[in-house]
Amino acid sequence: MGKKKIDNKFKSAKWKQVKIDGNLVGDDLEGFAGLEVLENYNSSFLSGTSKNKSYLSNELDGDIFDVTKKKGKKNKKDEDESENSSESENEEKNKEDDQPKKKKLKKANQDNFPGKFVLLNPPSEQDRIEELFSNEENSEIRTTWNQIGITSDEIIRSLIENNFKCPTEIQRLTIPVSAYGKFDILAASETGSGKSLAFLLPIVQNVQKSLKENEKEEDNLFSLILTPTRELAQQIHKHLDAVAKYTKVTTACLIGGLAIVKQERVLNSNPNIIIGTPGRVWELIQDGNKHMQKIINVKYLVIDETDRMLQKGHFAELEKIIELLNSSESNPKRQTFVFSATLTMTHELPEYVLKKKKKHLKQLSAEASKEQRIETLVNILGMKNSHKVFDITKNAGVAEKVVESRILCSLDEKDFYLYYILLQFPGRTLVFCNSIDCVKRTVSVLSCLNVSPISLHGHMEQKQRLKNLEKFQKHEDSIMIATNCAARGLDIPNVQHVIHYQVPTTGEDYVHRSGRTARANKEGLSVLIIEPNEVKNYVKLQKTLGRNEDLPMFPVDGKIMRNVKERVRKAREIESLEFQLKKTTDMKNWKKKAADDIGILDSDDDDNESNTNRHLKQINLALKHKKADLAKMLSTSLIPGSIYSLKFPIGQINEKIETNPLNIIKKAKHGNFKAKKMKLFRKRQQ
């Protein structure tokens, strides 16, 4: 449209060609072909009517102009315009003098018609907050949080964005005491009950208040939060950044497995709150990092998953950090937060406690009472005498929504039952093992069965661990085989099953493992697979949790199990052959490399190599046949028309299916836990 307008404007323009000396074709003029000049150029090309200003004038001035279509009268011939241009200009000036108000209004309207670029001042943060809380529902949410001591509108704005509309029970109990009373807090609650926000909210609010009162404190280190695992530290850091999004509070996460140089650069920005694992935090303190030297004056200390952090023989760096924090009496106002799903712990006391108490305190035993465990915690962490204790754990720490069950089988049958559960009841599932070797073997067997599990253990690189966690959270039916490094604190959404492939050695591990499911007020399933040698640990676990009754049996369809066993046995054979193949190949390559390095040439070596190649060929041939057999098995269904549904049991709770496993477990009556049962069980396995 704009181009057509310009063509009409200069339709009658007179152009004169300028003669140029030289040969335009032969000379190197870089594509220059000719030159023309406009002869009848005058002010008519610049003035015109107010509605039809020339595009040329705008281009000459260098202004940004719009190309919206304007209504106006058609231009007269250029000759008439050249004769009457001065008269039209005078008339326009007179009109402007006679009607100044109308002209101003007209100009104001032109500045804002569609197509113009209008710069508007963005709303202030206060305007946004007022608009947010003008909503009745949001106003009620603010009132709810205000009642327990969270009065910062910036923090409440973040809570609303993240759909935290009301505090949980542990938050209602602990936040008012920590926000108003400044008491030390020792709290225990079920997994998934919102413990992280219970200490993050009051800390962020208090730090925000300090920064508002004194801007010179913006480089201070206010809080240190310690966790037992790297994944938990990163999770808390993510929650912290969400809470502090609209405040000026700065944060940093210090964990092992990542470049320490990058973390030192982060510390150069002087973060107000640091979350980390004891090992990396202590390493940076020892390296003399300037910001980390401020740790002795932190106002808020948090130790999450305390029972794990203070176990005997674990986290020696934590003891050193605590000794450093308590070595000086210059920080009597420090507030300490201790949170865990349990209060049980077994460990030795640090040297400074033993010296102060003159060795009157002994190592805490498993049989110690709740009061003794709390007293030991208080002494170890140097907490104030005016501390507050909150223990709202129910059912010995296991979340109320977790449906527990067990399977009794031989060691050889564990893979059968694991595969049966994974195949019959798809859903996001966490399988826990006690050792890394067990994780690797289980992953290998399940991979042969096309289950595609994800692994997670302590020997993996940190980047790979994070990548696997993200992959596990991405797919609804994903399966993860992990050690206890995935048992504590991780808030993975919608985990439907937790399977204990090996019985955990402590009650605390069982509680935290089972706590990965049934989060956010949802139901979840926890299954213990028990072999004869683990009965002792199972009995001990039940006793630790204060139970007098046995767990109900997990229902299994015997017809399906027959086909399951055939598949798993074939997968085991394949896994064994693959292991032999890898081992033989590695040995062959090692011998060849060693011989080449030494420079040995021997006929015996040639014979050995030919025998090895023949053996490898046999293994590959056997693998090919067995994989073909397994593929044929996997292509067929497991007994069509089985009485059991192939859906995830929790998804069928509202359906009237009597054979639903979760419904059967719920209706099952807990039998008395008698040794006679276990004797018969052992006898049957023998």
From TrEMBL:
Keyword ATP-binding: yes
Keyword Nucleotide-binding: yes
Any one GO molecular-function label of the UniProt entry: RNA binding
Stored Pfam families: DEAD, Helicase_C
Biased composition (Basic and acidic residues): 91-100
Assigned EC number: 3.6.4.13
The entry's keywords: ATP-binding, Helicase, Hydrolase, Nucleotide-binding, RNA-binding
Residue span, Helicase ATP-binding domain: 176-361
InterPro entries: DEAD/DEAH_box_helicase_dom, Helicase_ATP-bd, Helicase_C-like, P-loop_NTPase
Biased composition, class Acidic residues, residue ranges: 80-90
Region feature Disordered, mapped onto this chain: 67-107
Residue span(s) of domain Helicase C-terminal: 415-585
Reaction(s) the record says it catalyses: ATP + H2O = ADP + phosphate + H(+)
Protein family (similarity comment): Belongs to the DEAD box helicase family.
Known role: RNA helicase.
Description of its domains: The Q motif is unique to and characteristic of the DEAD box family of RNA helicases and controls ATP binding and hydrolysis.
Name listed for the protein in its UniProt record: ATP-dependent RNA helicase
Organism: Polypedilum vanderplanki
Top-level taxonomy: Eukaryota, Metazoa, Ecdysozoa, Arthropoda, Hexapoda
